[in-house]
Amino acid sequence: MNQKTVRRLPIYIALILLALVSVVPFVWMLATSFKNGPDVYTQVPQLLPLDKKTGEWNPTLGNYEYVFTISGLGTAFWNSVWITCVLVPLKLLIDALAAYAFARIPFPGRDKIFVLMLAGMMVPTITLLVPRLHVTQLLGVYDSPWGIILPNVASVLDIFLMRQFFRTLPVELEEAARIDGAGRMAIFWRVILPLSKPVLAVVTITSFIFHWNDLVWPLIVLNSPDLYTLPLALQQLASTESGRAYYIMAGAALAVIPVMVVLLIFQRRIMQGIAFSGLKS
Amino acid sequence: MASPVVAQRPAETPARPGRRRRPGIGRRDHLIGWLLIAPALVYFIIFLLYPALAALYYSFTEWDLHSAPIWVGLQNYTDLFFDDVKYPHFWKSIQVTLQYTLVAVPLTLVAALGQALLINAIRRGSNLFRLLLFLPVVTAEAAVGAIWRWLYDPQYGLVNAVLGLVGIPRQNWLNTPELVIPALAFIAAWQCGISMIIYLAGLKSIPESIREAAVIDGAGPVQRFFKVTVPMLRPTTFYLVVTGIIAALQVFGLVYVIFSGGGNRSVTGGPEQSGLAYVLHIYLYAFRYNAMGAACAMSFILLVFIMIITFVQFKFMKQEAS
């Protein structure tokens, strides 16, 4: 027992070093975000928010206040919140309905459509951007929140994952419900969905993280600063205030912290989901 | 990706004869099936199928998004490849992207495998370490870019301060052409958490009996690693290499954020275009210079490249399976 612990000591030391590399950038981000401007630029890196001259305790929330109000990250934060809160459930519903049909309702041409959709996953996003921009202009949703929601409102990968899961559910349950007189939709809502919580959770969480973080599409489809999502506003902040690390780090913290909270709460499901989807595909 | 799906198809056929006996349900079922996939199908046609085909068409045109596209045949493609006055950085962007891929993918996989092996070797605290090493993955690339720009800061950056402890002189990481690719690749390796989780799952799936057999045969830890673990992880590694290459070829958001600065929406691609990733190059032509036709041509070249890689992957997987 004791010998085992000693043998594992180097492993723990290596892991602690790796974990430090992983975490220190975030610690440094937070540390910088609570410092007053002059205290940030010290020759010897200083973790705590101390006054550069006197060495006294000198933290501030001013950077957050500045980026939240003056740089417009407050507006962007709420834009991101409501766009993700509309987009993710809508997407989940559309994907789940399609996945159920692809898994359980046979009709002519179904599998051809499904294979075509899967083949579409190979197309790199960059190839789609220009025509998608044109489509959003034609639909009249360019430079609006719907310009972000509509082009993201379904996901072939999520349909695929849900379909794979639905197929593992025993058909007998559906047959029993059918004998009791339940129609397709009743079966979907009352039998399939309640049994599919694991896959629904994985898809919801990964969708939330992806859309909360997405920079590229908002960059292309949004033009008005008061419609910016948080990543886009942060990118703009990093570009325009490039000499003021304390503002940028406060902005970065606003973008990072909500996702970290989600990760802490749902870590087990996320890890399972990655192992599942990674190995499956 | 499609092959396992097709293979599983017969699963539901046995249930069908029973259903057939109930009159009308077949046709009504068809209708419900179509209705259920309708929203996803409409989405697919409008935002995937049409854009993909339209991009192919636009790649043969000269188009600024506002006036009507003018058909120019293969000119965009020939100009990209041969006219280095019109597209001076096309080859440079390919070179940068390939270099980045060659450095970032192996570095990421080695980091991921190392972390997975270490975590797999312990019991107590393995969940905590897994979580901590995963944090960089869920971070928005805008934040990743912003944070690392600050860490790589030549004067006040933490990276130089830490390297200074072991006697490595200060570097201007993001402003020295030779250092840009290593600096970007390190960020990629910092974000290796997904590969790490997949490697962990792979390690867990190696049967204990094989390891024990190797121990009985007198294999030491190093021998076991190279003769048992690495071969058993080969499918996992292969999958991660392919997906890693496909992702690395498309690196964009990070370089966009790292090299944007000093003004509103101005992007340079780094010192001497040393960070001008291929997709960043496409982005600049599409959305900065309004050369949509050329941008679509470039993106189709990338598409063909990715399709070749995917095709090779299929071939190998089939070989592996048989």
TrEMBL record, chain A:
InterPro entries for the chain: MetI-like, MetI-like_sf
PROSITE patterns given in the database record: ABC_TM1
Localization per Swiss-Prot or TrEMBL: Cell membrane
CDD domains from the UniProt entry: TM_PBP2
Entry keyword set: Cell membrane, Membrane, Transmembrane, Transmembrane helix, Transport
Family named by the database record: Belongs to the binding-protein-dependent transport system permease family.
Protein's recorded name: ABC transporter permease subunit
Biological source species: Herbidospora solisilvae
Automatic annotation (TrEMBL), chain B:
Localisation: Cell membrane
Keyword Membrane: yes
Chief subcellular location: membrane
InterPro entries tied to this protein: ABC_transporter_permease (IPR051393), MetI-like (IPR000515), MetI-like_sf (IPR035906)
Transmembrane segments: 31-58, 98-119, 131-151, 179-201, 237-259, 291-312
Signal peptide: none
Topology in the lipid bilayer: Multi-pass membrane protein
Protein's name according to its UniProt entry: ABC transporter permease subunit
Phylogenetic lineage: Bacteria, Bacillati, Actinomycetota, Actinomycetes, Streptosporangiales
